Automatic annotation (TrEMBL):
It is an enzyme of class 3 (hydrolase). SUPFAM superfamilies: PLC-like phosphodiesterases (SSF51695). PROSITE patterns: GP_PDE (PS51704). Residues 15-320 form the GP-PDE domain. Keywords: Glycerol metabolism, Hydrolase, Signal. Belongs to the glycerophosphoryl diester phosphodiesterase family. Its EC number is 3.1.4.46. The keyword Heme does not apply. CDD domains: GDPD_ScGlpQ1_like. This is glycerophosphodiester phosphodiesterase. It catalyses: a sn-glycero-3-phosphodiester + H2O = an alcohol + sn-glycerol 3-phosphate + H(+). It comes from the Bacteria.
């Protein structure tokens, strides 16, 4: 069966490749090694998810629950830190960054979060530290790429006495980044967090969206309400763009609507494994095997995305190059 023709749209900005948590398909996520590999593979931006330590230092972890991304469970000295917390309405049992100082976190080592899907990455378990935002910024500056930090659970952190906004703005300003042309995007699934940042910095802000549910801060009733014409207009009042789940841009409709509101569109996350791909793009039947993710990315480019997150930056760069050749 031939692929249906796609009505091509133009992006509003040059298309950027964003290394999702680094080259996380090839190295444990949120490690300097993973970010470095992503840069070597041609990523324009590296993405650190940001959480805070007990002593208010930003570190790069997908969640403040570090049970699945570090070897903390093997550290007998931290056994009594294991606890239960409810974060954004979901109960978690494990170890949490806000209960550790930076010095304590630096004794831990990263491990692969998806060992069943990415068994080759397990060989790197135990080799890499948990990086700070300062270390990620230094790496980005050294290699002249941008950063695309996400504030994780900002209302939760504010509720336990660790507000993020002023600390983040201060760290970006210290790096010389406080303008709309700085090599920075700050993203969040929450709304009020971004609105506060909009009043504190001129760096570009991205409102993350999902296909279901709504912001944890309850600032709007649902993500669905945010992608209506009125909702997108409201987002454009404080954000530079949106970051929807990739399924939300599959037919190009949301991209066109966002562009009409003056918003850029950076969908997440393009991954090579069959497990993450639509059935039509699978190669074979093994969920771990790599399918035709370049084709999925090409479709998004044809629909007019302004950038995209990928766990495999080299494939993302190759797809962009192929699309440029066809134009």
């Amino acid at each position: 069966m031939s692929r249906p023709l796609i009505a091509k749209q133009k992006s509003l900005s040059p298309v950027i490749v964003i290394a999702h948590r680094g080259a996380s398909g090839l190295r444990p996520e949120h490690t300097i090694a993973g970010y470095t590999l992503a840069i070597e593979q041609g990523a324009d931006f590296i993405e650190p998810d940001l959480v805070l330590t007990k002593d208010d230092v930003f570190v790069a972890r997908h969640e403040n629950d570090i049970t699945d991304t570090t070897d903390v469970a093997k550290h007998a000295e931290f056994a009594d830190r294991k606890t239960s917390k409810t974060i954004d309405g979901t109960k978690h049992v494990g170890w949490f960054t806000e209960d550790f100082t930076l010095a304590e976190l630096k004794t831990l080592r990263a491990k692969e979060r998806l060992p069943l899907l990415r068994p080759d990455n397990v060989q790197y378990d135990g080799q890499f530290e948990v990086p700070t935002l300062a270390e990620v910024i230094a790496l980005a500056k050294q290699h002249k790429v941008g950063i695309y930090p996400e504030t994780k659970h900002p209302s939760y952190f504010a509720g336990i006495g660790h507000p993020m906004e002023a600390r983040l703005v201060a760290e970006l300003k210290a790096a010389g980044w406080d303008s709309a042309d700085a090599p920075v995007f700050v993203q969040s699934f929450e709304v009020d967090n971004l609105k506060r940042l909009n009043g504190m910095t001129s760096v570009r802000l991205i409102q993350l969206l999902d296909a279901s549910g709504g912001p944890a801060d309850k600032a709007t009733p649902s993500y669905a309400a945010m992608i209506t014409p009125a909702g997108l207009k409201a987002v454009a009042a404080y954000a530079y763009g949106i970051g929807p789940g990739k399924a939300m841009v599959a037919d190009g409709t949301l991209i066109a609507a966002a562009h009409a509101a003056g918003l850029r569109v950076h969908p997440w996350t393009f991954r090579a494994e069959n497990y993450f791909l639509p059935a039509r793009l699978w190669s074979g039947v093994n969920p771990r095997a790599h399918g035709r993710v370049e084709e999925e990315i090409r479709q998004a480019i044809d629909h007019g995305v302004d950038g995209y997150f990928t766990d495999f930056p080299a494939l993302g760069v190759a797809a962009r190059a192929a699309a440029a050749k066809d134009q």
